[in-house]
TrEMBL record:
Keyword terms, alphabetized: Coiled coil, DNA-binding, Transcription, Transcription regulation
Organism: Neptunomonas concharum
GO biological process terms, semicolon-separated: DNA-templated transcription
One Pfam match: HTH_1
Protein name according to UniProt: LysR family transcriptional regulator
Gene3D superfamilies named in the record: 3.40.190.290, Winged helix-like DNA-binding domain superfamily/Winged helix DNA-binding domain (1.10.10.10)
Length: 295
């Protein structure tokens, strides 16, 4: 027999004053009310109610049990209601801003599964490598890579990426392998103009930041377009790891100057308010964090 049902029935008897009134409020028979209360008393090995033909009186043990159960049942009902409210709020539009290549390679599989799991939610995705103002664009969430400057925003780290200097083996056979960042000026380089470093590449040299301005024959605001140039043996570039990981693993590209590489860049979900965050926004952020944690 369900103990929670027995407890709820016992509470109803105490508050109604009689088995008959409790049966009406619970929508069950008087006999079933009596059966539930008796089962609870047998389980506790304690008399909770004194019955006579005219009235029901709560015992001292029953009064103590009632007070504790009343609080527990109220807390349980509040929890159930809060979760139901959250589920009911998992609907409507989510406006998201995110970088182009990172969205295409890493985020789209997560968004696709999220929409399958939550069919009442819609996503409006603004894909751009320019940082947007969440207030101006009315975005719910922005995915940002690298150092964040706006301290008024709340951020949650999702994962991290590396910027990897690389070239194809065929290019390196012809032009040689640079053994120092300063040697990059002797090579054909391609620069991702989405970078915030303004046509400079940074390296760590003897514990200090060392900046190089390579001779860039072509600038493109697309990491994936530059990747195509590299696998075609055209030159050297510094690209996010998620764009070229598979190429390095399969030998199409080779990492360079690994001992000079900078620390990884953080990837963050950024939003405006930490308190009273809508359930659908919090759910998507949690989903993104979980997806990267499982990689």
């Amino acid at each position: 027999m369900d103990k929670l049902t027995c407890i709820r029935t016992f509470i109803a008897v105490v508050e109604a004053g009689t088995f008959t009134s409790a049966a009406k409020s619970c929508g069950i028979s008087k006999a079933l009310v009596s059966k539930y209360v008796s089962a609870l008393e047998n389980d506790l090995n304690a008399r909770l109610l004194q019955r006579t033909t005219r009235q029901v009186t709560i015992t001292d043990s029953g009064a103590l049990y009632y007070q504790r159960c009343k609080t527990l049942i109220q807390d349980l009902d509040d929890l159930d209601n809060s979760l139901k409210d959250a589920q009911e709020n998992l609907r409507g539009l989510l406006k998201i801003s995110a970088p182009v290549s990172f969205t295409e390679i890493k985020l789209m599989p997560v968004f696709q599964q999220f929409l399958i799991d939550h069919p009442l939610i819609r996503i409006q995705l603004d894909v751009s490598d320019h940082f947007v103002n969440l207030l101006d664009e009315q975005a719910d969430i922005a995915i940002r890579i690298g150092q964040l400057e706006d301290s008024s925003l709340v951020m949650r780290k999702l994962t991290q990426i590396e910027l990897i200097l690389c070239a194809s083996p065929d290019y390196l056979k012809i032009h040689g392998i640079p053994n120092h960042p300063d040697k990059l000026t002797e090579h054909t380089c391609f620069f991702d103009s989405n970078s915030r470093d303004e046509k400079r590449w940074s390296f760590m040299l003897d514990g200090r930041k060392h900046t190089v301005t390579p001779k860039c024959q072509l600038e493109i605001n697309s990491a994936r377009a530059i990747r195509e140039l590299l696998v075609s043996h055209q030159g050297i570039s510094m690209l996010p790891s998620f764009v070229i990981d598979k190429d390095i693993e399969e030998g199409r590209l080779v990492p360079l100057l690994e001992t000079f590489q900078n620390p990884p860049l953080g990837v963050y979900a950024v939003y405006q308010h930490k308190k009273h965050l809508p359930a659908k926004i919090r759910l998507l952020i949690d989903t993104l964090a979980d997806s990267f944690a499982n990689e």
